# Entry
Amino acid sequence: MPHITLSFGRNSNSAETSGDLSALGVGLAAFIAWVFSAPFGMPMLLMRDNAFLASVSNDVTIAIHLAYICALAICLLWMGLTNQYFLRFYVGRNVLILSGILCIVGTAMLALCGLLDTANASTTIACLGSLLAGIGSGVLTCLWCTAFARYEFTTITLNSAFGMVIGLVISIALVNWIPAVISISIEIALVLITAIVLWHLTPIPYYRRREMPIFHALRVSRLKFLLQLGVPMFIFGISLWVIGSICIHSAFCTPDMAGNLLVGAACALCAILFITAVGLLKNEAHWDTLFRFMLPIVGIGMLGVTLFNSAYQLSAIFLLALGFSVFLTLLWVLFSDMAQEFRLSPIFVFGIGCGLLIAGVVVGSLITMRIGVYDEWTSLRWTGLAMASIICLMIAGAFMPRKRNVLRMLNTDFVEDATKLNQMVLDSAAAHGTATTDEQADAANPNHPDDFDMEDSETKLATTGSTDNLDSSESLNSSNETAAASKKPQRQKGSFYKRCTQIADQYLLSRRETEVLFLLAKGHKAVFIEEKLCVSKSTAKTHINHIYKKLNIHTQQELLTMVEDRPRPHTTSSTAESKMDADAAYLEEEVLYHGF
# Structure
């Protein structure tokens, strides 16, 4: 798919910061636009065109929203907790089709409820449609997080900001300015766009696309993860409901041109802030750094609650929209980059983290059930609500885990025998009559005697030159690498694969960095890595620089030496083998997760 590469210059280590703005942002924009125009905006859309029964009150509208967020929270938590047991179903393309159908049916039921003759019937149909839409959007959320977690931090941040901003702006237009029939048709089309983009972003099995060998994910203590990340997310959810409910009722779903323009300006400022943050932080930026950088802006946005329903309501709408859009984007970047950086299951991270976040939204909605009755609220009550929300935000921010806390959650003592996963890939390829690569064959033979000859990599490196200058002669030499490799007889190098895996575990390389490390250790250059992994040239260089920084080296030759000097892995003991057998279910989970 086409993409735009944005470069933000170089940091003090002369490492370039760049990211790709691609179909990720377009698909996320379509998904966000559907969420805020269909499950949340449909009642207001129908009331605007006098299609919704007059007897359906504000309480019923809140009930519809509550049904949606309850279904969404339950679906996310269920997927996060059962990730290991139903992963074959979760990562398959059939579930993508099923979730798309649920979202379309839910949208249609929400739209048809205004045509019924009685208020009870219309309310029942609307709530049922919200439940279906909540389940469908919960599955799509996990699928989107899996797609985002395959990319590096800068690309995640750019596409998250772009998708959130464009999605919110489109939802405002659909709810407030486009005729109901056309808006509903566009909402259904948005679901189709989301499914199509996800279909193309969901990779086919490894054995069919002859991709890299599988590298295992790091294990994480689920109890520690639940306490240290889940509890702050739950508290964040309460604050999110306060700011989100006001935005939805009085900013996003109000046909006031001045207010809508201010919301659009706030969304544009949100995108500018994230792009500026990436540019300023450069390669030092990660989810924890960005979180501390952007969270105060959310607090400033919540000050708009105190100004709401006063003479400064337009200023309040701008602040609230800014805080809300920044909050949503920040949380999406947090979950995606955390899963990517520590090689965690994105379905587990999003399912638990986002599920508890939405659970906090449910609790917040129950606490402030009649928040939509703005005329009954005094300025003192608005100020108290704002202060309570900011206190929740401060408490949750204080208890948010830092990068070092997440490192303590990881179980780095236990290393999965990822070669079993690669052997599953080889068996599957043989069953389908599909050829496999030498890398996959190497990765499936970890206990082969010391057999990796570094002369192959050193010869290739000497031919192409030092990687200190990544631009020199890459385009000329990379085109001959594949042909030369096919002519030369290959030897089994399972020991080499396992040494690369051990280095990746020791220095906590991300999912993508591990794949790049493997190719670098085989002597390949940046251009070959770009073609192999289907990334831009600047992205490949960024990964290489990150690897060098984490390993405290400066050249590819130093990396080759590090791999060569690595102690050879010995055959696992009987105790370790029994432990591997006990974790056979987990290994099957990993091959499913990485293979689809």
Observations:
- The beta strands are 4-10, 16-21, 219-220, 410-411.
